[in-house]
Amino acid sequence: MSDKNLDRLLVHTLKDVYFAESAILKALPKMAKAAKEPALQKAFQTHLKQTEGHVTRLESVFKFLKLKPEGVPCEAIKGILKEGDEVGEEFEGGSALDAGLIAAAQAVEHYEIARYGALKAWAGELGLKEVARLFEETLSEEEATDKLLTGLSKTSNKTAAAA
After folding, report:
1. Cα(144)–Cα(35) distance, rounded to whole angstroms?
2. Is the pTM of this model over 0.85?
């Protein structure tokens, strides 16, 4: 039972979120290309750059913990991204496409916010101040992206409703 502690949970979740961020890196260009509104395209492109930074930060955490950067398959993010693909395909060319893409992107953000919030708290409990700071930095960016998407949704929701 001694290996089922908070240290181990932090490492497992770190690997989970590393897998998730890598999968998100692949999904964001497709989402940017599918979006109709230029502001939404730009938001996805900006978040792609941020996500590259998130991966780099995670690699710094691995290094700090003296671990090799590696992911473990994350079924949650696979499912969320698959749902986003389905919305993109089903509503392609329609007035509700951007609204659906935003909702899919926010599902991703909410997943990441939950993960980074937990990781930050656990790192703090374990006395890993630098690791907690890195998680906080990413958490702040994820929350800002979610807020931006909420703002963009107001326009896309009105466009979809008016059609």
Report:
1. 20
2. yes
